[in-house]
Amino acid sequence: MKKSYKAALLSTFVFPGAGQLYLKKYWRGLALVLFVFAGLGYIIRVAAASALSVLDDAVVKLQKGTTDLQEISGITGSKMSSTDPYYDAVLYFIICLWIFAIIDAYIIGKQKDHPDEEI
Fold this sequence. Notes:
mainly alpha
């Protein structure tokens, strides 16, 4: 299998930047990995805070004794909407980085497959 295909597949299915690391572009691959990890960490933090808020509301209602289990199930089963204004921006940033990593790994791999040609 050609290096360009292998690098693009690594960046697609393993993690963004894995193809760059495979092609020995360590700084570029490390930068992609770090940015994506930072974005995922942010998204996980926001989702965990939202989930804890919903669970806190459910526990408060349960402690008051004014609710039944069906209402608690409705509270915890409801869609957790994020009120964080940067959540969507970070998610789209990660998606764009992932697409960039795939294309970039393919281009770098293509250059290594055919070092005498300019791409």
